[in-house]
Structure formats: structure tokens, C-alpha cells
């Protein structure tokens, strides 16, 4: 590939030394091969990928944003939503570019192996699995909350959670993302319309449904708030994780017809999601203040709550479906990636796939019942799993492919230092936000806000 100047030629040369595949995209390196004789996973177009990307992000996270805005205030929360949206978009551009140079990477764990060897791969793979098992658990909590609302608590919450788990495992067992993609479109429209119904519903009330209905009361709406270190870290982690699930995009890219088109769905998805988060979150917080429910679909009173949960039920199920599917697909590829069974309709192929969805779904159910408060579950995912995967690891991978910046021009050295900052920021969030979440969970148990694990109490609506 010719360059018009010597500096450009030197940069390509340095990159190629760091990565033999850096110069061009290598179709032969793809995990899933285009085939006419076996199972062809490579059927996802860029529009379908946009729908899947959007549904992965626009899910249970949007339901916890008004509570995070209450902790940070309207101005602080708004800045945080936009800033984290831009931040997460850039970090995935790093991951996407890295994948173009290393097309053999099916997941973020494969990328960690390129930069840091087997130990880095296994640690990252563990974080990935734990992260997506936890967010599958958040999907289970969301579905069980919806069923509780629709049935007027006709059964124990644990039984609704078990039913939600069975349904999510069944739908997640659809083998190809090509087919899950169109289910995602229905799920996205479902939850988007449900959130819109709540947004309209809260603006029609004189005061929030959870607030005292007579006499004076404090709305709790502030422009800037000071929640303290623990509360601030939990709120920031909640907003961060609402758009940080971009590591789940990588397995989707592996099933795209042309993986190099990943930026089209990425930019479309992040623009829509960030704008929607900002609009929906601000309106609900402005009208509900400190009386916002979590998940927020319960903020406009019993009637709107039942209507919104009825509309959102499919979307909540699809959210859990996508999370479980992505986690199971990672394990599936790890087990069968180098065997003939990966793209064949053999008994081993199907047995392995069903085992992956069932085992991970069962783990998600156990964790969802162990940490039943919705906000804390979302924040814990952000601090423990997505801070390393969506902050530190992209920074590290960029440093791996751009080592020549360390001794380059002044601007290149500054850029290099900023990406070191990405790594450090992830470590800070890992420690600080995890401390904040754990402290708040301990306090919630001590005050009785959370019942015992596997209790019939509906804890998901606690703020």
C-alpha cells in the first residue's frame, strides 16, 4: 500500500511489526467462515446489526437512569449521560479497529490474548462471562417485575423469576444472530414505546405516584447534587454501564456479512441511544424527582405501570435473550472453535449449544435472586466487569498497536499518555465503584430495604 510521505510509511511499518495483519483485512482469519455446505453464521447485514447493537444497549439500563440523575442532579447527570455515551463510542472504535487488524478475534477475550497472552485472555473471558450472566440476571429481574405488576403479585416473585429464566433460555437458544436480530427489532420497539408511555404518563400527574398525595412534599429535583463518594460512584457507574455493553458487539461483528462495516451500526446505535437516554431520563426525573421508581416503568402510577410493563414485556425478555445469547456464544466458540462441529449440525454442536444457554441461564437466575435490587445489580456489573472491559482494555489494546507513539511527535506522546489514562480510569472505577455498590448493598440489607435472598418480596422497585 503506497504512502505519499515517509512518515506515513514508517507508521504503517511500525504497525505491521506490532500486528502482521495490520495492513489489510484478512477474511481467512474469521472465526466463522462463509460456507454453503455447513451452518453459515455470516448472515447479519449492517442494518440488522444496528438493531442488535441498539437493543443490547437500550434495555434495562434506561430503566435505572432517572435514579442516577437524582443522585447527580439534572445538570451533572445530563453531562454524565452525554460524556459516557461519547466515551463508550470511542472505546468501541478502538476495539473495532483492533478487530479489523486481528480478524481471528471473536470476542474481547481473544483481543486480550493478542496483547497479553493466555492469562490475559482467561481473566478477560471470566469478566465477560460474569458480566453477561449478571446483565442476564437484570433482564430476569425486569421480566419478573413486569409479571408481578401485571398479575397483582398473584405468585411469589421467585416463581416469576424462574418462569422468566425459562423463557429467556428458550429464546436465547435460537442459534444464529441473523434470526435473533429481527426478534430484537420487536423487542426494541416494545421497550421504547413502553418508556415513552411512562414519560408521557408522569407529565400528566400533579405529583409523583410514590409521593404523598396530600399536603406539602419535597420533589427532590435539583440541578447539581452531592451524593457523597459511594453514591456518586454508584450513579456514575449506572450511567456508564447503560451504554458500556459494547463488548457484546464483537460477537455480532463476527456474524456480519462484512465485518468492516461495523462503524455504520455503531454510530447509528450510539446516537439514538444517547439522545433517548438524555430525553427520557431528564423528563422522568423532572416530574418524579426523588420519588422515581426503579425500574422507572413504575413511576407513573398503577395503571400506567401495568400498561407500560405489558408493552415492555417482550422487550425485557429480548434483553435477557441477547445477553444470554452473547455469553453462551462466547463459551460455545471457546469449546468448539477449533473443531469440525463449530459449523456443522452434529449432535455435539447442538448439545454444546444448549448446555451453554441452560447453564449460564441458571447462573443468572441464582445471581438475580441473590442481588434483587435492580439499581445495585446494574451498578455492580458496571464496576466489576465493564470498567475493565470497556475502559482499561481498549486503552491497553490501543497502546499495543500504537507503541511507536511513545517516541513520536509531541502530539503523539500526549495521545499515548491519554490512552494510559484510559487504563488507569478503568482501575479507579473498578475499585471505587465496587466499594460504593458493596457499601450500599450492605446498608440496604441492614435497613431491611432488601429482604433475604430468594424471598417472595418484590425488591426490584426499591430506589
Automatic annotation (TrEMBL):
<keyword id="KW-0472">Membrane</keyword>
<feature type="region of interest" description="Disordered">
    <location>
        <begin position="1"/>
        <end position="24"/>
    </location>
</feature>
<feature type="transmembrane region" description="Helical">
    <location>
        <begin position="69"/>
        <end position="95"/>
    </location>
</feature>
<feature type="domain" description="Amino acid transporter transmembrane">
    <location>
        <begin position="43"/>
        <end position="433"/>
    </location>
</feature>
<feature type="transmembrane region" description="Helical">
    <location>
        <begin position="373"/>
        <end position="393"/>
    </location>
</feature>
<keyword id="KW-0812">Transmembrane</keyword>
<feature type="transmembrane region" description="Helical">
    <location>
        <begin position="347"/>
        <end position="367"/>
    </location>
</feature>
<comment type="similarity">
    <text>Belongs to the amino acid/polyamine transporter 2 family.</text>
</comment>
<protein>
    <submittedName>
        <fullName>Transmembrane amino acid transporter protein-domain-containing protein</fullName>
    </submittedName>
</protein>
<keyword id="KW-1133">Transmembrane helix</keyword>
<feature type="transmembrane region" description="Helical">
    <location>
        <begin position="44"/>
        <end position="63"/>
    </location>
</feature>
<feature type="transmembrane region" description="Helical">
    <location>
        <begin position="414"/>
        <end position="438"/>
    </location>
</feature>
<feature type="transmembrane region" description="Helical">
    <location>
        <begin position="157"/>
        <end position="174"/>
    </location>
</feature>
<feature type="transmembrane region" description="Helical">
    <location>
        <begin position="229"/>
        <end position="253"/>
    </location>
</feature>
<feature type="transmembrane region" description="Helical">
    <location>
        <begin position="265"/>
        <end position="287"/>
    </location>
</feature>
<dbReference type="InterPro" id="IPR013057">
    <property type="entry name" value="AA_transpt_TM"/>
</dbReference>
<feature type="transmembrane region" description="Helical">
    <location>
        <begin position="126"/>
        <end position="151"/>
    </location>
</feature>
<dbReference type="Pfam" id="PF01490">
    <property type="entry name" value="Aa_trans"/>
</dbReference>
<feature type="transmembrane region" description="Helical">
    <location>
        <begin position="181"/>
        <end position="202"/>
    </location>
</feature>
<feature type="transmembrane region" description="Helical">
    <location>
        <begin position="307"/>
        <end position="326"/>
    </location>
</feature>
Amino acid at each position: 500500500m503506497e504512502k505519499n510521505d515517509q512518515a506515513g510509511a514508517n507508521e504503517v511499518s511500525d504497525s505491521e511489526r506490532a500486528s502482521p495483519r495490520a495492513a489489510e483485512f484478512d477474511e481467512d482469519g474469521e472465526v466463522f467462515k462463509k460456507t454453503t455446505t455447513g451452518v453459515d453464521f455470516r448472515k447479519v447485514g449492517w442494518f440488522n446489526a444496528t438493531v442488535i447493537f441498539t437493543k443490547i444497549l437500550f434495555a434495562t439500563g434506561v430503566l435505572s437512569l432517572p435514579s442516577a440523575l437524582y443522585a447527580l442532579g439534572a445538570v451533572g447527570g445530563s453531562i454524565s449521560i452525554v460524556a459516557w455515551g461519547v466515551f463508550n463510542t470511542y472505546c468501541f472504535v478502538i476495539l473495532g479497529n483492533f478487530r479489523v487488524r486481528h480478524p481471528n478475534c471473536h470476542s474481547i477475550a481473544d483481543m486480550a490474548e493478542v496483547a497479553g497472552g493466555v492469562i490475559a485472555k482467561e481473566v478477560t473471558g471470566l469478566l465477560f462471562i460474569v458480566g453477561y450472566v449478571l446483565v442476564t440476571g437484570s433482564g430476569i429481574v425486569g421480566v419478573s417485575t413486569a409479571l408481578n405488576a401485571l398479575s397483582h403479585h398473584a405468585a411469589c416473585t421467585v416463581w416469576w423469576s424462574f418462569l422468566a429464566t425459562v423463557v429467556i433460555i428458550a429464546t436465547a437458544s435460537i442459534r444464529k444472530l441473523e434470526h435473533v436480530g429481527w426478534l430484537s427489532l420487536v423487542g426494541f420497539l416494545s421497550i421504547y414505546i413502553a418508556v415513552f408511555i411512562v414519560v408521557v404518563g408522569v407529565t400528566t400527574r400533579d405529583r409523583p405516584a410514590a409521593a404523598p398525595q396530600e399536603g406539602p412534599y419535597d420533589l427532590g429535583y435539583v440541578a447539581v447534587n452531592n451524593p457523597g463518594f459511594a453514591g456518586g460512584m454508584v450513579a456514575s457507574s449506572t450511567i456508564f454501564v447503560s451504554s458500556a455493553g459494547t463488548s457484546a458487539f464483537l460477537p455480532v461483528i463476527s456474524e456480519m456479512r462484512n465485518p468492516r462495516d461495523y462503524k455504520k451500526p455503531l454510530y447509528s446505535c450510539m446516537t439514538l441511544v444517547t439522545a433517548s437516554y438524555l430525553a427520557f431520563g431528564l423528563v422522568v426525573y423532572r416530574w418524579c424527582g426523588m420519588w422515581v421508581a426503579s425500574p422507572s416503568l413504575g413511576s407513573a402510577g398503577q395503571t400506567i405501570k401495568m400498561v407500560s410493563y405489558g408493552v415492555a414485556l417482550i422487550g425485557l425478555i429480548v434483553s435477557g435473550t441477547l445477553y444470554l445469547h452473547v455469553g453462551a456464544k462466547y463459551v460455545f466458540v471457546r469449546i468448539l472453535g477449533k473443531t469440525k462441529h463449530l459449523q456443522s449440525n452434529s449432535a455435539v454442536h447442538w448439545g454444546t449449544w444448549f448446555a451453554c444457554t441452560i447453564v449460564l441461564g441458571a447462573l443468572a437466575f441464582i445471581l438475580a435472586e441473590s442481588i434483587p435490587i435492580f439499581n445495585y445489580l446494574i451498578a455492580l456489573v458496571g464496576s466489576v466487569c465493564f470498567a475493565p472491559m470497556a475502559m482499561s482494555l481498549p486503552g491497553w489494546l490501543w497502546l499495543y498497536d500504537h507503541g511507536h507513539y511513545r517516541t513520536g511527535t509531541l502530539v503523539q506522546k500526549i495521545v499515548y499518555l491519554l490512552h494510559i489514562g484510559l487504563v488507569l480510569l478503568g482501575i479507579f472505577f473498578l475499585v471505587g465503584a465496587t466499594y460504593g455498590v458493596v457499601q450500599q448493598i450492605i446498608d440496604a440489607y441492614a435497613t431491611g430495604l432488601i429482604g433475604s435472598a430468594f424471598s417472595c418480596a418484590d425488591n426490584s422497585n426499591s430506589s
